[in-house]
Design brief:
It is an enzyme of class 3 (hydrolase). The chain has five helices and 14 strands. It is mainly β.
């Protein structure tokens, strides 16, 4: 589960350019600025790749399938990996049909609540986290959702779901649709063991609060 996340790096395009197989990065509309409390329906960077070219575009966090006629209803900001291939809201994006497809969403970390206390999850080595995502262009706008899977040790105490974080080597197979049987399994142990969790200020519960101190140890 992921309902709030953080992305503050000022070198996002450089990080994207260093991913395996990427030789060129375009961001024709720029990238959203630093944010410490990103919530569903806000704009986030959506990374799509074609051969050696990566394009980064701002998109709405909350998928808008091609058949969506308005913005009514809860935003589709998470997609269960177990049902993305069959659920009507996500199957077109998963299969790459009807003007939709797969993407990657970057983050420095994300928030999760446990026993009513917000916790911040990040990588202990400070590297960016890459989440498997799906994109669509319903209502003539780019939108995206994050794929989630079962949470395993050492993260299962925090929540029973976890975004499907990708190793750098898994990013291209995810985008091209190869190795899906593996990539819809929980986040690899080698990544889970890098995650660092700390309690943070309850001020993160208000989406109007957006400042670096939110991710400080509470």
């Amino acid at each position: 589960m992921c309902g709030r996340f953080v992305l503050f790096t000022s070198e996002l395009l450089d990080h994207v350019g260093k991913l395996p197989g990427i030789k060129e990065v375009h961001a024709p509309d720029g990238v959203p600025g630093p944010r410490y409390n990103i919530a569903p329906t806000m704009m986030v960077p959506v990374i799509r790749v074609q051969e050696s070219l990566a394009q980064v575009d701002p998109g709405r966090w909350g998928l808008l399938p091609h058949w969506k006629k308005d913005l009514e209803g809860p935003p589709l900001f998470n997609a269960r990996g177990e049902t993305v291939a069959s659920k009507p809201s996500f199957r077109d994006a998963y299969k790459g049909t009807n003007g939709s497809g797969r993407c990657v969403i970057p983050m420095n970390g994300y928030y999760e609540w446990h026993e009513k206390v917000p916790h911040y999850v990040t990588r202990s080595d400070g590297e960016l986290m890459w989440v498997a995502g799906l994109w669509a262009t319903g209502l003539d706008r780019l939108s995206a959702t994050m794929v989630t899977t079962e949470a395993l040790e050492p993260m299962d105490w925090l929540h029973n779901r976890l975004p499907r974080f990708l190793t750098e080597e898994e990013i291209r197979p995810w985008l091209t649709g190869s190795m899906d049987e593996l990539l819809l399994q929980p986040t690899p142990k080698q990544l889970r063991e890098l995650f660092e969790v700390r309690p943070v200020d309850k001020a993160v519960g208000n989406v109007k609060n957006d400042y670096p101190e939110l991710i400080a140890q509470s």
